[in-house]
């Protein structure tokens, strides 16, 4: 059972950095990480910006171990290591004069969503952050040939409109169904008078990666926040990824027919496919050498 008192002490501060008008950017492994868009966006920002860790979030109070079992390593019958469910929080100073950043890549919590969201809010208030960006990925019945689609959910009509104006591929979300931790974060920030916006990259249901989508979202963040995070490596990765997809299509006529059928879709949905006939099994082919979220 979730223990709110325990959760209240789950944040360990190593430093309280002085930041300039910071923005909190959050990504999550799990249900909202289709195409690894969420995790790879944060991983790219952390790799390129090289931020500094300032706090640790202990996620054990928020995790149901029967749903997401920790990874362990055993050698000769002896347990050598068990996965630590500790998430680092980072800060980054924008030397170009724009807004500083707070970065977090965590597992989506199973338990205590309001308390988890309040913990993020406490960090924002302490470091005087006025806006949250959360990044998600959603499976959609679209082809990888199609123009990208990014949905936006925000804390107010103004923030949705302002974010939509950053790129012509962004559209306000139209959705009814199960929500994610992103919705709780937006709701919590809104109740506290802070701006919050969630960007969702729509990725083909038959792919486990979306480097082109990650590049587009990083570019949007660059524009929205005043960053200069490079995206050239992501573009090169997307080119190589497309080449591997073409190889898979050439080898499998059923796969090719299904992708061609998706190309003929005129009204892509904003939700995951409803049946397995929309999901192409490219796992063995496309996951070689990758670092996929094990929950996908």
* CATH T-level fold name: Rossmann fold
What string, H for helix and E for strand, traces the elements in order? HEEHEEEEEHEEHEHEHHHH
Q: Give the terminus-to-terminus CA distance.
A: 25 Å
Sheet with the most strands: spatial strand order: 1-3-6-7-2-8-11-9-10
| Poorly predicted runs of 5 or more residues | 1-7, 266-296
| CATH class wording | Alpha Beta
* Number of separate strands: 11
Tally of individual helices: 9
Per CATH, the superfamily is: PAC-like subunit
3D architecture notes:
The chain has 296 residues and is α/β, with parallel strands linked by helices. The chain has one domain: 3-Layer(aba) Sandwich (Rossmann fold). Helix content is 34%, strand content 23%. The protein is built from nine helices and eleven strands. The strands form two sheets. The protein has a nine-stranded mixed beta sheet, sandwiched between helices. Strands 4-5 form a two-stranded antiparallel sheet. The protein is globular and about 55 Å long. The protein starts with a helix and ends in a 10-residue tail after the last helix.
Q: How do the strands and helices of this protein lay out in sequence?
A:
Layout: H1 4-7, E1 11-13, E2 23-29, H2 37-49, E3 52-58, E4 72-75, E5 78-82, E6 86-92, E7 101-107, H3 113-126, E8 131-140, E9 150-154, H4 157-164, E10 170-172, H5 181-191, E11 195-204, H6 211-225, H7 232-251, H8 253-263, H9 283-286
Helix pairs in contact: 2-6, 3-5, 6-7, 7-8
List keywords for this structure.
two-stranded antiparallel sheet; nine-stranded mixed β-sheet; globular; Rossmann fold; alpha/beta; disordered C terminus; 296 residues; 9 helices; 23% strand; single chain
């Amino acid at each position: 059972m979730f223990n709110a008192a325990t959760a209240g002490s789950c944040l360990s501060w190593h430093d309280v950095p002085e930041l300039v008008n910071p923005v909190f950017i959050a990504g999550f492994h799990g249900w909202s990480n289709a195409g690894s868009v969420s995790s790879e966006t944060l991983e790219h920002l952390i790799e390129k910006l090289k931020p500094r860790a300032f706090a640790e979030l202990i996620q054990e109070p928020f995790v149901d171990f029967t749903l997401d079992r920790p990874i362990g390593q055993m050698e000769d019958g002896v347990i050598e290591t068990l996965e630590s469910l500790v998430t680092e929080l980072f800060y980054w100073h924008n030397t170009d004069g724009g807004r500083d950043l707070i970065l977090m890549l965590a597992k989506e919590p199973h338990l205590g969503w309001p308390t988890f969201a309040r913990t993020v809010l406490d960090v924002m208030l302490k470091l005087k952050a006025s806006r949250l960006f959360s990044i998600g990925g959603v499976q959609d019945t679209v082809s990888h040939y199609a123009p990208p689609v990014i949905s936006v959910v925000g804390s107010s009509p103004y923030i949705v409109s302002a974010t939509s104006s950053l790129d012509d591929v962004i559209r306000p979300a139209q959705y009814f169904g199960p929500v994610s931790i992103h919705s709780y974060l937006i709701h919590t920030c809104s109740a506290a008078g802070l701006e919050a916006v969630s960007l969702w990259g729509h990725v083909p249901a038959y792919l486990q990666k979306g480097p082109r989508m990650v590049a587009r979202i990083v570019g949007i963040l660059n524009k929205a926040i005043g960053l200069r995070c490079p995206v050239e490596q992501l573009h090169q990765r997307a080119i190589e990824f497309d080449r591997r997809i073409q190889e898979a299509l050439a080898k499998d006529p059923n796969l090719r027919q299904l992708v061609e059928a998706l190309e003929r879709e005129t009204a892509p949905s904003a939700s995951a496919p409803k049946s397995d006939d929309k999901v192409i099994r490219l796992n063995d082919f496309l996951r070689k050498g990758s670092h996929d979220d094990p929950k996908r």
